[in-house]
Amino acid sequence: MDIIYIRNLETRAIIGIRDQERTTPQTLRVNLEMGTDIRAASASEAVEDTLDYSAISRETLAFIDTSQFYLIETLAEHLARRLLEMFPIRQIKVQVSKPEAVPAAEDVGVVIERSAEPR
Questions:
Q1: Residues 5-26: pLDDT tens digits?
Q2: CATH class entry, domain 2-115
Q3: Cβ within 8 Å of residue 65, ≥6 positions away
C-alpha cells in the first residue's frame, strides 16, 4: 500500500463543548495519510490515476468550514467517512488537532484510522 499525505492543513471552525467555543472559531489542523496504489499514476503521470490531493484538501476544508461538531472525535470520524466515500482511498488516517485548546500544551488532538468498505 502506498501513502499520499497532506500535512498541517489549517482552518478555523466552530468546535467544542464550552459556550465560548460555540461562538468563536478555533484553529484546527488536519493531517491525512491515505492508502492507495500509485502504480497506475506513476506509469501514466495522469492525476486521474491517483488521489488528487488538491481536491481532497478543498473538500476537507469545505467540510470543516460548514461543520459545527462538539468533539474533534466526531469531526474526524465524519471526515474520514466522507473522504472514503468521495475518493478512491483504501485506507485513511485522520489526525485533527486543536493547537489552542490547552494553553500549556503545544497541541492536542485525535488520530483515527479507517478502511474503505469493499466496492
A1: 999 999 999 999 999 999 999 9
A2: alpha beta
A3: 11, 13
Residue 76 in grid coordinates: 474526524
> Is 98 considered catalytic here?
yes
Beta bridge partners of 5: 33
Domain boundaries, the chain: 2-115
pTM of structure? 0.94
SS3 111: strand
Q: Measure the CA–CA gap between 105 and 44, rounded to whole angstroms.
A: 45
Query: Which candidate in 84, 98, 109, 116 is catalytic?
Result: 98
Kindly tell me the burial class for residue 64, based on how many C-beta atoms sit within 10 Å of its own C-beta (0-12, 13-18, 19 or more): buried
